[in-house]
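Data availability (excerpt). The following record was deposited with the supplementary files.
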Amino acid sequence: MKRYVVLAAATVFQLCLGGVYAWSYFLSHLERAFGIPEERSQNIFGVCIFVFTLCMILGGRLQHRWGPRRVALLGALLYAGGYLGAGFFASRFWHFLLFKGIIEGAGIGFGYVCPLITALKWFPNRKGLVTGLVVGGFGGGAVVLSSAAHALLADGRELSQAFVILGFGYLVIAGGAAALLSWPKEEMRTQKGDSTAKQSEMALSVMFKDSRFRSLVMAMFAGTFGGLMIIGSLAAIGREGGVAEGYAVLAISIFAVGNSLGRLIWGMLIDRFGKMTIPLSLLFLALALLVLLFTRTSSPVLFVAAAGLTGFGFGACFVLYAAQTAVFFGADLVGVVYPIVFVVGYGIPGIVGPGVGGFLRYMAGNYSLPIVFAALLAAVGGMFSVFNFSRAAKQGG
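Predicted structure:
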């Protein structure tokens, strides 16, 4: 029974952290309330993602010393603190960059890996499904946050007040979920020696020479770079194509629903079909992005549906690589290897992708070029990953 309580707590914790993906909802509000243009606001999102991935490396290592509960509590405090700081003190771009970019990003980084690794240790034989459930919560966080923020602002509250309310809410919910995280008793006993440190040292010395590691990084980079170019501008893409504000906001929620479902379903698929599910997911993402391109000017209903398909494809990036890392390197090394995969395959796209998307939009005068570029990158990544995984198989993967 306890493992299901831990699984539920891990999912709720990730649901809180996943609010970061509702960032595009706040762009127009930041511009109206504080005069921060959307182009600059995207830099806050990019910094948040980059800090998230850097702190994830440290969080993955700290949990071997502190256990998952204390590291997750630290993440919850920082994450909620980002909202509270933005609500109480922020009025300029640099203030929001500090609180919503750096502090909130650090909270996500420290918190993200703890529920994931904890769930894998409680369910070692269902890596894909359990990973999909936990990170599916992260994908669904945007639905919860965008809906809550919309309700708060619709009642006439200022953006700062909404951030304060959200911050206190996350402090209670994420903090409570973190307090329920723990490892199985047998796992706690094995962590008391120095085997983890030796395994960590071994992993760092060989992972960059391992074609399995490189194949994971390259495939994740292709999917997340293109996805992050689009996700932070999803509402703006719809508005540019003539989609009404209500549908543009709905697209964010449907994207998040697709993201959550994708994480669960892709996790089930990798349990059944193995690593070749990864190139399939990248090709699916490429097709979904092209559908998004052509529907944004034709039908708001189809645009919302295309946003869901794009979220479904994008969600694969956050379950397949974690699950396959556990298959390639073992569950004990996921906390060491996967953060490195994540920082290269997701952190770099997180800081560069939104900026590249903004630059391409500036050059083209619309969002067509960024969407085509994102689709092309995902398709090429899918084709190359077939070759890369074939090579990785020679190393026993």
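Summary of structural features: The chain has one domain: 2-392.
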